[in-house]
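Hi support team,

I've been running sequence recovery on a batch of backbones for a student project. Most finish fine, but this one hangs at about 90% for roughly twenty minutes before it completes. I'm not sure whether the input is malformed or the queue is just slow. I've pasted the structure tokens below so you can try to reproduce it. Let me know if you need the job ID as well.

Thanks,
M.K.
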């Protein structure tokens, strides 16, 4: 009996070619796992036919949208995680869930092998395989893009992969005209490689799919009020929605207003720099709104301590350590910081911008009587600031006397 393998399958160029190659090269019974993670019906259309034509013995489709939004995207949102100041980690945060689901299916089907379509130059190979090894260190992993036989068979890049697909009658979307790679889920869509590898070249107008060009967005403001409970978004304009539906709704509204485009050169974990183009409309709105509610409800030192960990948290997500001991510890801390982050933020969307215009919370640490520049009725005694300043200046005064003020 042939050994069973579970392939993380999208129906795109890479995984379609890899499925066929795994069957022909290793004689495996390949189970194609396609996760519905919010990439849209269009992306899933015809996936069964593609899998069968590529040689899959079985196609498994799992709807993981709610789990993705609830346990991954919103957990990361509570940490305000942003990689290198720009990237809201849309692809990075999806990979651990895909790998976990793949391992679940492998266990159910009695498969001893897992495989993925990540290249040998990218971050995804690390993300998938760190998750596999954490969940079951005994699992066999085949990473075709790193296999010598894969390259010996002429599969040395996406252009050759397109030729291979055509030769074997495998239908794929990529063309020589638009050879970039895309990855879409409920949080974002990414574009990389091909003509986008030139960091000076502006992405062609037809690249973007989730957002309208900001200059073509409506000439009127869209206003939203987003309710949070313990750091988690639960309603938009008073309408309570499930995590996945809420995020999808904000993607639609943000996209119509041109919100959430990012074009950056980032530092990959494997060592090279890479140009990535991203659209994250709903995530951008939630990031701004979440910060607004936090500004009222989080203690200063707790906020500053959490903020000091943002870059580390984001790097752990980016580098594939979602299931690591340090991430469990970080997420426990993040949950503690969000205990009182309950309230409402108001944002206004206009031509690519998302601007916070109001925030309120039932347990706000903001006290107007103390903060006011007008009469505070004795809520704050300004004379006490003299001693506070003198004590904080003491080391500076002493240093200046000893070393001078240069």
């Amino acid at each position: 009996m042939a050994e069973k393998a579970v392939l993380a399958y999208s129906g795109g160029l890479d995984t379609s070619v890899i499925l066929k190659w795994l069957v022909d090269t290793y004689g495996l019974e390949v189970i194609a796992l396609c996760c519905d993670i919010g990439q849209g019906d269009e992306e899933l259309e015809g996936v069964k036919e593609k899998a069968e034509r590529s040689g899959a013995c079985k196609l498994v489709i799992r709807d993981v949208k709610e789990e993705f939004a609830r346990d991954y995207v919103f957990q990361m949102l509570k940490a305000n995680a942003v990689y290198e100041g720009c990237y809201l980690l849309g692809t990075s945060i999806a990979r651990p869930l895909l790998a976990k689901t793949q391992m679940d299916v492998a266990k159910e089907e009695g498969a001893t092998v897992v495989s993925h379509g990540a290249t040998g130059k990218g971050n995804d190979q690390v993300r998938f395989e760190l998750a596999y090894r954490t969940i079951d260190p005994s699992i066999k992993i085949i990473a075709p893009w790193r296999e010598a036989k894969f390259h010996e068979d002429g599969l040395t890049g996406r252009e050759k992969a397109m030729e291979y697909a055509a030769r074997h009658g495998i239908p794929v979307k990529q063309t020589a005209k638009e050879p970039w790679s895309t990855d879409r889920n409920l949080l974002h869509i990414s574009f990389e490689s091909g003509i986008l590898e030139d960091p000076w070249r502006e992405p062609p107008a037809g690249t973007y799919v989730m957002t309208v060009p900001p200059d073509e967005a409506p000439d009127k403001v869209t206003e939203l009020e987003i309710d949070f409970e313990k750091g988690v978004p639960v309603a938009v304009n008073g309408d309570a929605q499930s995590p996945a539906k809420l995020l999808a709704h904000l993607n639609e509204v943000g996209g119509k207003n041109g919100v959430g485009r990012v074009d950056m050169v980032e530092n990959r974990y494997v060592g090279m720099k890479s140009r990535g183009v991203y659209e994250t409309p709903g995530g951008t709105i939630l990031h701004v709104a979440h910060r607004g509610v936090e500004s009222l409800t989080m203690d200063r030192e707790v906020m500053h301590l959490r903020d000091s960990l943002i870059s580390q948290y984001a790097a752990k997500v980016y580098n594939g350590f979602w299931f690591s001991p340090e991430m469990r510890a970080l997420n426990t801390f993040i949950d503690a910081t969000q205990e009182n982050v309950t309230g409402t933020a108001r944002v206004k969307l206009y031509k690519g911008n998302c601007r916070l215009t109001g925030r309120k919370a039932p347990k706000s640490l903001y006290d107007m009587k103390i903060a006011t520049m007008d009469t505070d009725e004795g809520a704050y005694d300004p004379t006490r600031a003299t001693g506070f300043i003198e004590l904080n200046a003491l080391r500076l005064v002493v240093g200046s006397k000893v070393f001078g003020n240069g």
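--
Follow-up from support: It reproduced on our side and the slowdown came from queue contention, not your input. The chain has a mean pLDDT of 95. No action needed from you.
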